[in-house]
Amino acid sequence: MSPTEPNVNDYAMRHVFFAIFLVMVSYTAVSQTQLPHIQLSNLDSKTKELPQFLRADISVISFWATWCIPCINELEAIQEVYDEWVEAGFELLAVSTDTQKTVSKVRPMVYGKDWEYEVLFDTNQDLKRILHINAIPYLIVVKNGVIVYQRTGYNPGDEDGLFQKLLELKK
Amino acid sequence: MKKFLGVIFLMFFSQVQSQESWFSGGFYSNMNYYLNDNKTGDFDEEHRFRSNNYLNLDGNWSNFEVALQLEGYAPSALLNYPNVYDQELGISAIYATYNFNSGSITVGNIYEEFGNGLVFRTYEDRDLGINNSLFGGRATYNFNDKLNLKAVYGKQKAGFDLSDGSIFGLDAEWYVSKFNLGFSYVNRFQKMPSTNDFNEYTNAFSGRVNFNSGNFSADLEYAYKSEDALVEFGFVNTEKLFDGNALLLELGYAERGFGINGTFRRLENMNFYSDREMDSNIDNQQWVNYLPSLTKQHDYALSNIYIYQAQTRLSFAPYQKAGEIGSQIDAFYTFKKGSTLGGKYGTKLALNYSVWHGLDADFDSTNKSYTSEFLGFGEKYFSEFALELRKKISKQWMGILSFNDLYYNRQFIEETSGEIDAQVLNAEGIFKFGKGKSLRFVAEHLWSADDTGNWYGGTLEFNPSSKWNFFMTDIYNYENILKKVHYFNVGMSYRRNQTSLRLNYGRQRGGLICVGGVCRVVPEASGFGLSLSTVF
Predict the structure, then answer these.
(1) For the segment A137-151, what is each residue's pLDDT rounded down to a tens digit?
(2) How many CB atoms are located within 10 Å of the residue B438 CB?
(3) Looking at this predicted complex, what is its ipTM?
(4) Which residues contact A83 (CB under 8 A, 6 or more apart)?
(5) Which one of B64, B141, B215, B444 is most buried, counting C-beta atoms within 10 A?
(6) Contacts of A81 in chain B (CB under 8 A)
């Protein structure tokens, strides 16, 4: 460690950070996180800021990857009932967190599975990082540009509860 | 520098509440308590209890964004985690960004990727202990959505310290009709004691074109890395200089219900680290570029035992290697609802084939020189054929059947000995009771006459509601002559909105843990694990 860097093991420093942490957590309780204006590209290689891809009043942004079986289980399950979603005025955007290891599989997989979702690429995981998403599947629900609900993980059948949640949020 | 940014960070937060602004953050903790075990051995290291902890705090205020990541490895990091993560509490990353109409300026830790990553990528992967973000500055500028420019400068993070080398990079991308054209330049400087007039700067250039029209897509990138010292067993030989190059070509066709993609990649001497002495370090620290293996990424336990790792470096000993060459094909197809094979709900098929060879070259080990051919397929390193069928059977039942047949040349991939032929079959079933209650099970078998022989495995998961999950998994090398071990895990998790808590007890199989084509070696271990993850 170079001499110019702070000695963060210092007792006082720890307490300062802990205090900031508490202030922020309490502040967060009343603040609403807005959707980051981060640039992403879609299957047609069109690059836009994330909010510009949203069309419906209530949008679900699902983070997935081609190798993540629970993610695909969830997206397949929602695809089965997606007509109902569209009728109710909801939409799903599937953000692929595939890195260069697997990103070439996204396009053939989305077409091959005949998914109707808008698919976006987050290849260096900038959006995933900014939203502090630790593991996928993970989804956020956006209403009027504000993140109103988040959920980590997927158990089979969660799609039913999610649809009910969206209907509640629509009211 | 970090201290200065820390002060700005504090000032910012004292201002932020009165404006249109918001905070967000995340916390992730992974704790283990290691136990003695008659199968995996006694735990004879320091600290039976270990934990990796990450706290993120972000603030947004109009066009400003600031972020701080604190990390704590207390009392020390999880077993076999890269030893550069050695502080009980420390600032791991901090940055401030100012966004204006057509660009941005960032000071601090920077995550960035140029093109396909052949010459530059900085990212974080907590499972692997990788955070090679560039600590310095970045400027981006966008001209009318037609031309996008990026410039970066800094030193890569090396745990809580910074690398000895520095990086300067430029990237330009033009959007012309259906084409995206890109050009990248990366310069690495590291002082190096030498007796000759060794060039301490290494330059990497890359050009790329991406085409996308209707059903067709194509992507081509070529990268060149200028002459740099040969590194063998950590020794930097400034007398022996070699350049490197990489070629990546992808072609795809897709229509509703069908998609296919083929990839070809050739790598020659493309190891590129901020610090030359870190070449081929087992912890994957300080990579400047990103060269993952291009194979299928598996999610099932037994399919994850023999995983290919890209062979990117030049070496004369113990094995003569100059790089790799190979390809991969992926195809996806849906048998429509109502067709013979589709049935009531349709049937989905996925195919993958990959084959990777060493780059064919003539080596002169005495004089340390070699000549390679452009399309020279040398020693076969790896091949795999994988087939996956997915079918919804009824409103309650869903099933997945997957099979893969692989060849793994351990002698060249891991530089030990042996070759492995193996076949793996996985069957997964999901039953939904309704109201969030469900059952999931997986049965697996691996056949091999090599290495530790056959394995079987299974997973059983019960979800009494959408919040709770109880699981049992086991894999068993029942034919191993030396040591038969049940690598089992039992546990439960609780999930509510964006928070999850997971508790498990079991054994970890030693070997390679791979994420996104990059692998880390972990030892066998037994014990309890607890992890907590939340976003606020």
Answers:
(1) 999 999 988 999 999
(2) 23
(3) 0.92
(4) none
(5) B444
(6) none
